[in-house]
Amino acid sequence: MTDRLPPRARLAVVAARGVSGMARRTGRHGSVIGGRVATVLDRRVLARLAVGRTVVLVTGTNGKTTTTSMIARALGGDGEVATNHLGANMPDGITTALLDAPDRRLAVMEVDESYLGEVAAATDPAAIVLLNFSRDQLDRVGEVRTVARRVGDAVAAHPRARVVAFADDVLCAGAGLRSAAPLWVSSPSSWTGDAGVCPRCDGPVTHAGLRWTCGSCGCERPPGNWALVHDDGWSARGPDGVEVPLEIALPGHANRLNATFAIAVAAELGVAPAVAAARLRGLEQVGGRYRTVTRPGGSTRLLLAKNPAGWAQVLDLLDEGPGRPVVVAVNSREADGRDVSWLWDVPFERLAGHPVVVAGDRSAELSVRLAYAGLPHRIADDAVGATRDTLGAVDLVGNYTAFHDATRVLA
After folding, report:
1. Does the model's pTM come out above 0.85?
2. Local mean pLDDT, 10-residue blocks, the chain (411 residues)
3. Smallest Cα–Cα separation from 9: which of 41, 57, 56?
4. Which of 134, 253, 297, 299 has a CA that sits 20 to 30 A from residue 143's CA?
């Protein structure tokens, strides 16, 4: 595919691959630097690398990396699909992922919400997947309704893209409604903290059972084309009576919903739902998420939660293991966002009954929040060290950099 590039782009590709290779040989994963070098040498390199590919873009606040991995696997896996599986989801990282897989005609890329418009303009996607929108990194990304409106603008700018969106998230549905023919995925959501205002008219939204409705303009939850359902077991139910069982290794409701998205997208691209579901069975961890590490005296499961909506999902998962020790680590570095006021929107009271240890750069603020929640806890200097001091199975829950720090140490 790179043989058809103009001379300047070919030079950019050669230089980028050399820099990425050097980064990897020195112990860095090189998922960004190659794309950055290529873009400096040819500002249109991302668009050139996307020509001739069927591109799927996945965006949203939570679940991008896991859902991207699931969609890529459902479409055929590593040998067939180019993907940014390490989560480098800004234009430089996406460029690097395409550089690394020049001959793969399918590309599934997670995209930071703020960059969807730019990446979609360069790649002309066949499908855009909208997972959810909630408060996250307010000091970097901004107010969540503004983010959702920008995503909606990107959707409207690409009328040929098949938009697959979450019907139960008010802001996500608002962005999806900008498409002429969206495909809706549905499942009751446990987080409605950012869903109080209509995306169409800013009127008040009310929730009644599984539905939401605007009292001013009548905008309401769209009917789902695909749904996560539970009868004798969990399954994904699609159009025309299609239903496939979900037998996935990744735990929790959120991952069953992610799998339903993956099956829906794969079906749109010609993969039979039963085939897509079968391909998801062996997926046990994504970028370290949900990985269980055996250590002397027990085991540590690694979980990522970086905002109130993500914590709602993790708390549901922790409820399945009452009394299991939990180490919570929170940092506020550039990749996390400096503002940790979101801690006060997390219902940490639900950790009652779990022995709790707090760690990370912002352990003091976290400790204050847990004190107001009435939770006994102790502060540790090191999250991984705290897990090693605990006998039996323990969950380590970190926000972005805290999670990746723990993953590197435990790996």
Report:
1. yes
2. 70 73 68 80 90 96 94 91 87 91 94 96 98 77 84 96 95 93 87 78 84 88 92 92 94 94 97 97 88 91 93 91 93 89 94 96 96 96 91 94 91 70
3. 41
4. 253
Q: How many CB atoms lie within 10 A of CB 55?
A: 23
All residues at 6 or more sequence positions from 250 whose CB lies less than 8 Å from its CB, including other chains: 66, 258, 259, 283, 284, 285, 286, 290
What is the DSSP code (8-state) at residue 105?
A: S
pLDDT at 1 (0 to 100):
60
292-410: CATH class: alpha beta
Residues sharing a CB contact under 8 Å with residue 300, sequence separation 6 or more, in sequence order: 292, 293, 384, 387, 393, 394, 395, 396, 410
- Cβ atoms 198, 170 nearer than 8 A: yes
- Residue (of 301, 305, 302, 293) closest to 400 by Cα position: 305
Q: Helices (DSSP H) in 162-272: which residue ranges?
A: 170-176, 253-268
Residue 85: the pLDDT is: 75
CATH topology of domain 45-280: UDP-N-acetylmuramoyl-L-alanine:D-glutamate ligase (3.40.1190)
Cβ–Cβ < 8 Å for 63, 131: yes
End-to-end Cα, the chain, rounded Å? 35
